[in-house]
User: What shape does this take?
Amino acid sequence: MRLHTGLASLGAALLLPLASAQSSGGNSSTNSSSGIGPDENGFYWIYGDGLTAAFIPYGASIAKLLINDKYGVQRDIIAGFDNATAYELDKAHPHLGAVPGRYANRIQNSTFEIDGETFHILPNENPTPEAPNGADTLHGGPDGWDYRNFTVVSHSNDSITFSIVDPDGDQGFPGEVISYITYTLHDMTWDFKMVALATTKKTPIMLSSHTYWNLDGFANNETNTALNHTFYLPYSGQRVGVDNILIPTGDIVANKEGSVNDFWSAPKQIGASLGDPEADGNCGFNCTGYDTCWIINRSQEGPYDWRAESGFVARLHSEWSGIQVDVYSDQEAFQMYSCNGQNATMPLKTSQGLFDNADFPRTIPQHGCLVMEVEDWIDAINHPEWQREKKQIFGPGGDPYVLQASYVFSINSTTTTS
Assistant: This one.
């Protein structure tokens, strides 16, 4: 282990438990807390009023989130596996509940430029004959952060903090990055804070939480998809334009009222517009659904406090279970993926779904879930005209990267028309 003495003075300002770091992450994990540790399945549990959650060091991932629905039935509302080992063994690796890094989402041509120097990072998506390893980089590369075991540096009854040290040159990224991920439960709320410091060179950093949601706990006896969930983005009248492999084109596109991507004018069920011709190709070539980055335009109303009541940037609600989550965040973009690539090969956990019902197999079908990602504008490192450099490029001696979010849960039986 290498001691980063230069960071000690930052601990109080960043609210990070720097002194308790045990290792650099890598391929092993340690638990530095006393008396609290993983259960027999490798899960680290935390508890809050009305919520219980389990986490694993692999990818600093959330593995379970338990809440009672409007009938008082406990539901596990995120996808995952029944034990921590399965996450590392799964060849599909859909980034379940993890922190993608050091740069979330896609990087065009697996290249970017900082101060006139071009960097080539490892590709891992959309292979072609000309680029057999991929035409772009997704979620940090073939060995991004969600493929690695973080270190548990703090674990209490209601909170857990993970850390990772990402070495200079890993996946082709310049400079060392140290990151701390803290999850906390309280008052029907899941908070998380992600902090990252570039210690040696300027480098791009953008993180998120890649959690797969189904607010029915995959137990709805009327449908096994999440297309019945109602989605609302009150500040998102625009989105990032993309090509047919979901690489940003540089265009910021209007979501006209009533269009497929309009979730700002009123709450709408996720499946409500998928029969429209405009939905074909909305999530890439030959794809019907969503894998969309919406812009969050709060500043139009003047200064704001992202924590302010009713200032949520996204709302997801299921009439069937009554479970609702309001997402508050300091970030300025929001990605929603409607699980277009799920194909009924991923199993449900034993805490989910229906049993002995041939109409509802114990797997996740296409559109059976959705991912919600708070983040900044995707691939902005390749679009200087967006002027996002201060939000995405960080260097030694400068401000740290910080992402904060609160997922506030409630039970709401309100009906939303499709």
User: Anything to note?
Assistant: Confidence is low (pLDDT under 50) at residues 1-35. The helical segments are 11-14, 84-89, 389-392.
